[in-house]
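Could you help me review a protein record that somebody else here produced? This is what I was given.
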Amino acid sequence: MKTISQLLKEKGQQAWGISPDSKVYEALKLMAEKDVGALLVMDGEKLVGMFSERDYARKVILKNRSSKNINVSEIMSSVVISIPPAIDCEQALALMTVKHIRHLPVLDHETLVGIVSIGDLVKVVIDHEKQVNKALNQYILEHEGLL
């Protein structure tokens, strides 16, 4: 199974962030512009939170608040679950499933090296399963004398 490091090399290490004192409206505009479902909340080089569509829906819209008057820090998820680049994609997907999250920042010690989404990981797992299936079919055909 592919590691997170390998995945980031393929997909790129681009990660979009915003400062905690930015307005939620600015965060939403950036998310729409970059076509992403979450942003890293960065205080300089330090990861201090995550802001997602889910945070917006549950902490702004459902509470009838205005995104133009609220700072990202007021509604971001401040407990950030992250992963190291050395783990494999299947482990990362399992963590996302257990924790009910859709985005994982990738930290090499304290340094941010990228972010992966559940979509990124599902694609890797599906590709892996296709490769395994192809290899098994090849094996069966060879051992049945059909090749």
Summary: Residues 11 and 120 are 9 Å apart (CA to CA). The chain has a mean pLDDT of 93. Helices lie at 4-11, 24-34, 53-59, 72-75, 89-99, 118-143.
